[in-house]
Known about the structure:
- By secondary structure, this protein is mainly beta.
- It has helices at residues 93-96, 107-112, 133-136, 145-160, and strands at 29-43, 46-64, 67-82, 89-92, 116-122, 127-131, 170-176, 187-196, 199-207, 220-221, 226-234, 237-251, 256-265.
- Strands 1, 2, 3, 4, 5, 6, 7, 8, 9, 10, 11, 12 and 13 form a 13-stranded antiparallel β-sheet that branches.
- The chain is globular and about 50 Å long.
Amino acid sequence: MRTIAVFLALATAAGAEDKPQWKLAKGDVLRYELVRTLEASPAPQITVNYLWDYTLELSVKEVKAGVATLEATLTAAKYESLFPGSPPCRFDSAKDRDRKDLEAPLVPWQGALGKKITVKVQLDGRIVSVEGLEAMFDVEHTQPYGEQGATCLREMLSLLFLDRSVKDGDAWRLGTNPYLVRPDMLLLEDVKLAAKAGGYTWTGTLTTPPPDEQHPQPTKLKDGWKSDGTAGWAAGRLKDLKVDTSLEYEEPLPVTAHLIRSVTAVKK
Length: 268
């Protein structure tokens, strides 16, 4: 299974008091919980639920020429998938770190604990690179589940480091897959950010891309669906972000979905 998260480069902010300029120095340590929940109905009276929950400790290793290099360690994780008529599939690192009888979807989560990735970001928030995600989730040996975990974390990192400074009317495009288990259900999310005191608001318009080699099946989304969110920002750090998205596919499956993505600063 192949899934794609595409994050395109972005521009500058207006208003120094609202500008999300990261204030990072070598030796700083940041901690964030990144949570993605999905409730989807692929058929009448059938509902499936997913949870992806990552807690990262990010240590600033270097700040040079406006670019910060951070080493991010996965310190805690939760995963859950609930299907009608099937036993729950759950992983919670607080209880399952050393479990020996894990189901296949949970193996990459256990293996990812304590592993590190390298994230380089410009101080205006734009991601320069993310290295080590495939190794963190052992994608080569845990398909398709490891790739799902890695893809989801890459998407969530793009919300922590917004890839875009904020001003009224700013727009950027995010490639996401709300129904992550189907690679052909990629969406494009055109996002506008509006600065406000202490943070910003988020409005996203959802569209479907044309078919390509990785997503060969035509995808059609009912019109009018949007995502809405708000974020808090203080002292050169993101405090919290929550984005709420509802949508409905017509093709290749008549699926309704409710996706919530959140980023929260946490104490040690």
